[in-house]
Model the fold of this input.
Amino acid sequence: MNRPKTKKGYQELIEQAIFEAQDLRTTDEWELEEGNIDFHFVDPLISQLKQLLEKVSNDRQAFGEEDLPWLLIVRRHATKIPFKDLLHTIHQTYRLGLDS
Done:
């Protein structure tokens, strides 16, 4: 997946990741009832994605040199996150800026 070329494209990627994470949480709630899976990391991931979206939307620190805080979550739980490639694209955009 390529980095977006516009701020709007960047925002849309983050919004898509939030949607995917919320969908994963819904799956988690169903799985928890069955006693199968624990996705305790999803709520912190959603919260951190929303914080990033707010920063990008308000032109506050949309890019940076350090890793985003939720990257550690992705690394630890990669096998449970079907949209990890989307998260990596968002992280690369944060680190490298918009694609030219």
User: Anything to note?
Assistant: The radius of gyration is 14 Å.
